[in-house]
Design goal:
Elements: H1 3-6, H2 10-22, H3 25-32, H4 36-50, E1 55-58, E2 61-64, H5 66-89, E3 97-102, H6 107-121, E4 126-131, H7 136-141, E5 147-150, E6 160-166, E7 169-175, H8 180-183, E8 195-198, H9 209-216, E9 223-227, H10 230-238, E10 243-248, E11 263-267, H11 269-274, E12 286-291, H12 297-308
Parallel strand pairs: 3-4, 3-5, 8-9, 8-10
Antiparallel strand pairs: 1-2, 5-12, 6-12, 7-10, 7-11
Helix pairs in contact: 2-3, 2-4, 2-5, 3-4, 6-12
InterPro entries: LysR-type_TF, LysR_HTH_N, WH-like_DNA-bd_sf, WH_DNA-bd_sf
Family: Belongs to the LysR transcriptional regulatory family.
Keywords: DNA-binding, Transcription, Transcription regulation
């Protein structure tokens, strides 16, 4: 084995994934609560170990090269394995564990639903919440994860896809003084700015509706960042003119205000539908609870019921 490669630890790999997502050493340093020079040193170590430059230097940050784009899914899978193993090792030996994953804005909702289902059925286990990543669905199919929330339906033989609700409400988030809040009249107004989108899986070929809308009108959307992290998306918006587009699958209220000062949210569901985003030719999107086939079916159905219950706490 490459000796330099053997020296790479969890922190180094996590740094690389965050750099790939944010393209900024300063943003990554803030997320990891470390210094920018340390992030730069780790990047140098990564370049030496992987024998590639990994990024191209641009005027406004770093641009991942093709080699890194091919490598990232494997690295994310390694990180997911680290995190799952860590959770399992910290669990009491005699207590079964249930591993769940959802994007950060939906994780409390899933956790509350699982907890209520366990109490109702008088089942006892330790719940481990795993960070949502682009490899969650493949890990779920292996049985390492038990449940996840996603909009990406997969073949039945991999795991069960249980519909929770249709995604029909949308909001934008941007810095409080952003002109979009005064000027927006249609979805097309959003396309004048850089967009930050929340993805659910790079393995999915689904385009987001804003992409379909733009391309149907011959417009190439200016996507500045694609990330599974709402926190990272809002950080990007807080420090730029970029606009975050959020599909609200949890409730009708904009939830992003709790994630950072200086950020304002606006529900644009009416504008969204008036702009004919959801035409018949556009695929409807649903939020699914995805469950490994070996899970207890009573537990699974009870979790689904609590997820659908409007009284289940979402935060």
């Amino acid at each position: 084995m490459n000796q330099d490669l053997a020296k790479l630890d969890y922190f180094a790999l996590k740094t690389l994934v965050l750099l790939y997502q944010s393209k900024s050493c300063s943003d990554v340093a803030e997320q990891l609560k470390t210094s920018q020079p340390k992030v730069s040193r780790v990047l140098s170590q990564l370049r030496q170990a992987l024998r590639d430059e990994l990024f191209e230097r641009r005027k406004y940050g770093l641009a991942p090269n093709d080699f890194l784009k091919q490598l990232i899914p494997q690295i994310e899978s390694i990180l997911q394995g680290y995190e799952t193993l860590s959770a399992q090792l910290s669990s009491p030996v005699n207590k079964p564990a249930l591993n769940i994953s959802a994007q950060e804005q939906m994780a409390p909702w899933l956790l509350n639903s699982v907890s209520q289902a366990a109490r109702e059925l008088k089942m006892e286990f330790e719940i481990n919440t795993q960070p949502y990543s682009r490899t969650c669905q493949s890990i779920l199919s292996q049985g390492v994860l038990h449940y996840t929330l996603s909009v990406n339906r997969a073949p039945k033989e991999l795991y069960d896809n249980l519909i929770i609700r249709e995604l029909r409400r949308f909001s934008i988030a941007a810095r409080k003084d952003h002109p979009i809040f005064e000027s927006i009249r249609s979805v097309e107004d959003l396309l004048e700015y850089g967009l930050v989108l929340i993805y659910h899986s790079t393995k999915s070929k689904l385009r987001q509706h804003i992409e379909e809308y733009a391309l149907s009108r011959g417009i190439r959307p200016n996507i500045k960042l694609m990330t599974e992290s709402l926190n990272l998306a809002l950080m990007k918006a807080r420090n730029s003119d970029n606009i975050v587009l959020i599909g609200l699958s949890v409730n009708h209220d904009c939830q992003c205000q709790q994630y950072g000062e200086g950020i304002k949210c606006m529900d644009i569901s009416d504008i969204w539908h008036e702009s004919n985003i959801r035409q018949d030719r556009m695929e409807r999107r649903f939020l699914y609870l995805q469950s490994h086939a070996s899970n207890d079916q009573r537990l699974t159905q009870t979790i689904v019921r609590h997820l659908k219950d409007p009284h289940t706490p979402k935060h």
